[in-house]
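Weekly modeling sync, notes
Attendees: S.R. (lead), two postdocs, one rotation student

Agenda item 3: backlog of single-chain predictions. S.R. asked that every request posted to the team notebook include the full sequence so nobody has to chase files. The rotation student volunteered to paste the first one in as an example of the format we agreed on. Action items at the bottom.

Example entry:
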Amino acid sequence: MDILLSALQILATWQVLAALVIGSVGGVIIGAIPGVGPPVAIAILLPATFGFDPIVGLTALLGIYGSSMYGGAIPAILINTPGTPVNALTTYNGYPMTQRGEAVRALALAYAASFFAGIFSVLCLILLAPVLAKIAPMFGSREIFLAAILGILLVVIAHRGQMLAAGALAFFGIFLSTVGLEAVRYTRRYTFDQAWLASGVDLIAVVLGLFAISQAFVLLIEPNRRPRAGKLGTGLFRAMGEIFRHKRVAGVSAGTGVVMGILPGVGEFTAQFLAYTYAQKTSKTPEQFGKGSPEGLIASEASNNSVPAAAMVPLLALGIPGEELTAMMLSVFYVHNVVPGPGLFEHRMDFVVALYLALGLLNVIVLLFLLGSTRAIMKTIEVPTRFLGAAILLLSFVGAYSMRNSVADVGVAAAFGVFGFILKRLDLPTVPLIMGMVLGFIMETRLRTAMMRVTGPLDFIDRPITMILAGMIAVLVLMQVWAAVRALRR
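Predicted structure, as returned to the notebook:
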């Protein structure tokens, strides 16, 4: 009870509440604009959050992260264009419902499923917080090092059909994390006598380039588009009650999202696939899936909206981000000298609970906002894409320069913007590179610390958790090798 009261005191300041409202409302609007998405918005806003208290900056970013998928469902349902990539599955059943005159019903189901899943995941994690607080101290340097390797491995495996490219980009990210002054002996690594590389390749500049600037290039090069959203009927709030007729699908989908969110590198897409497959296989009308099935729409929206809260578990408990958005948030912790990991659960449990409560509150804010302003948000769908591209490009360069007043950071952001654009054109993933940069730093520091107490190879895995993690890594590698051998034989 004392921890809960302390968490409420952390939240009960006008700065935190204002950041949460602005982030939540802004996330909905950003999610509703096709071609922008939360990675672009968070990348642009990231430099600005460094000047705030950590709880203020994180609640603003959490607001965008947790609410963008609500907004992304609007264009997915109304114009068959997902606002965010994870809303792509929503188009399968949302747009057919719009075509047969059930746009209000489809939006209501999407909002209700998202709200239920958001609250469900937060409640699960608050109940799990005491357990995590006991488990987290068991993770020392060796455990976190192996968990980081497992995280990178899961990220690579998640990109089926592109694992070689994903692995190469992850290793490139690890290499980038080693550039600059080495932390122990302060020797320069891979700087090539360039003074501006002594401080390393800045993560935020890379993030701005890969996500924001590259997307700006895409929007500017493609033909200018201005989608039309059409008209919306009434009865949005009343139609939300239909979610109670599909409690099983909503509950299983939300639970799937929580489990998949906790696993680093898995994320929304896997959660959606599993939840959608379950809903279709157990439905009385599986032939309706892809043609406007309410169950299919609920499964896709509930599963993706329960992931954000769950993805905070590896970030807060181990300091290991699950995907690119939590990797960006990790930099906010480091800037304010708040180190996520076992110590956070031991000494700052109120801070952790405050973040979970903020995630729950943002779902309430978003739902109230959507019920009153969906028609107004529909206007944002009609923003010309080239205007968006120019605005994103300008804001990205301003953000890159404002971090350290460095032209070099602008150059790095621009270079990775071109690199990110090439990756998009080749349909290659950008997430492994960011995860490699973040986890590479964690792996190096933790390995250095662990090796001080290790005298032989077997000493590294002489504890229960290290044995489990090492076993999981070995099993995953062997499974992929076996799959490759079978493919070659065929």
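Discussion: group reviewed the output briefly. The CA atoms of residues 64 and 382 lie 21 Å apart.
Action items: rotation student to repeat for the remaining queue; S.R. to check formatting next week.
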